[in-house]
Amino acid sequence: MQRAHIDQMTFVEYLDDGDYFQILARKGDSIFSFINDIEDNRNINRGDLVQVRWKRDSITVPGDNDSKMPADILLDLKKAADGPVSRFRKTYGRKLKYTWATNEEFTSSYLDKVYLIVEYYLTQTTNPLLRLAVNSKDELTYSIESKTRDDRDYTVIGIAPVGPNGASIVQWLYVDEESDKLYEYNLPEDKLIAFD
Q: Is 102 exposed, middle or buried (0-12, 13-18, 19+ CB in 10 A)?
């Protein structure tokens, strides 16, 4: 029987699109991946402090002659404290609205993923217009589209506070479709700035 490990970490995300469901969590500068067969209610948000209990074991690699590879298997996950997204949901208290072009074919799970990215961004942004809108609990909306830039595919998000004269985008975000890395678009310099 493998010994169980316990540690406090910061929750990053659920990954449900591979052969095994996974949970990612950060400790310092390191990201840990845990095989997730237990946590299915999805009530933990990015940035929440969690207590993780896991064991070192192995999993079967599908389609590779059932070979085994080492893996960290999640035994228990408990929320220890709210992170920025959980606090945002409690204080902002509104749902974000979004639109996308009819020619785009985004799945509902991908739209959910983008929603979580925008929520997290709004908790971390220094954009004064977005900070004001969040603090005032003003309605926010965003648009989603696909775009290619420098031979890379991105999902482009335009975030806008909704005012009496409609919505005017105040921040563009780019999500690299291959790596899921998030960038703020700097309009005056026409460049992408990595956002963590």
A: exposed
